[in-house]
Every structure is written in C-alpha cells, then in structure tokens.
Amino acid sequence: MFPPEWDDGPWSSEGLTCYTTYRIVKEIYGEETARRAYVERWQSELDDYNNNFYVRQPEYLSLLPEQYQADIAVSLRSVRLYSEMPLKLLKAEELVGGEEAMDKILFDLFNREQDWEYPYLTYQDFLDACDLKEEDLNLE
User: Are 92 and 130 in contact (CB under 8 A)?
Assistant: First the structure.
C-alpha cells in the first residue's frame, strides 16, 4: 500500500512496521523496555545521521567513487526508514492524542475506499488523516 517510488523521504512500510513492533513490545514488556530497545536506539541513529559528514556536506558525496556513494546512500536511507519514520509516527501519536487516537487513524487509513488507479497510502494521506502538516513532525 505504500508508493513504489524510492525517494529521499522516510515514508515506508518498514517504518510503520518498526513503529508497530515498538507498540507490541511496549504492550508485552512495558514502556521502559520498549523505550530502551527502540526509541533510544532510533534517536541515537538519527542523531548519528544528522551529524554525518555527507549529510551536512552533501557536495562532497559526489566527489567519491560511485560505489562508495551508493554504499553511503543505502546506509543513510536505512536510518530514515527504520529510525526517522517511527520517531515521526511516535510524535504524530502524541499530537493526535495518544495510542487510541493513532490506532483509529491507522485503522481508517488501511480500511479506506481505495482509488485503484493509485491505491497507495502516501505521507500526505497520513498527515491529512492526522490533521497535521509536515513541519509538525519535524524532529529536533
């Protein structure tokens, strides 16, 4: 249900899966365990991403051989998918009023009437369902 485009954004089924796994672990093992195992790791990875030389100075990435550029790009992309997106979902959860509200939003999104010409769930669809703007989910 996620768009097949491979862009620079964090929106993906992988990010939603990470968020959902966090929620399951939180339910079974408690908030502290889930926070240490997931949220702290995600935040650490995102901090490392934001401090990465090639993120801060992207003009230097193009100076590297293509294989190095590709390896770095894949590594950076995985942080956005597996750490940034779940953190954004957690922030959205807080802004919409908690887990129950988020569960309803996600339930409605995944059970909506689909447009078969473009059946994907986009980041904008999610933001609209949450009544949020992209900047509302910026992470500091």
Answer: yes
Closest CA to 125 of 22, 16, 24, 39: 16
Q: Could you tell me the pTM of the whole model?
A: 0.88
Closest CA to 89 of 72, 113, 109: 109
- Residues whose CB falls within 8 Å of the CB of residue 126, separated by 6 or more in sequence, listed in order: 11, 92, 105, 109
Select from 4, 140, 15 the least CA-distant residue to 77: 15
- Angle, vertex CA 64, rays to CA 14 and CA 140, nearest 5: 45
Calpha distance 62→68 (Å, rounded): 10
Going by the DSSP 8-state scheme, the letter that residue 116 receives in this structure is T
Cβ(131)–Cβ(97) below 8 Å? no
pLDDT at 6 exceeding the cut of 60: no
